[in-house]
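MOLECULE: protein
FOLLOWS: sequence and fold
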Amino acid sequence: MELKKISPLAIAEELGNRLKQARLRADLTQSEVASRSGLSRRTILNAEKGKVQLENLVAILGAIGMVEHLNMFLPAQEISPIQLAKLKGQQRQRASRSKKRETQSKEDKPSW
């Protein structure tokens, strides 16, 4: 399935369908998944329709033993040493002093 040409709603529905297939493959009922995840059966039903909050999706994946698949879904992004060096060069070490503040403080001091 080429996801570029599909609407976000259709992708969410497809993910919900895949979640349902994974639950069935694990031979679990919606009630069992709800009990294991600490969610309501209605939340599981909605998730299988593609209507799920991210936190609930993670709980459901944990309940069906698939939470490790999140690494394939969205792999961690490694920062290369070159990118790290570039970022470090831009990192501020201290705040610069405002010239406006210096002139104001001189004006505020009494001249006596």
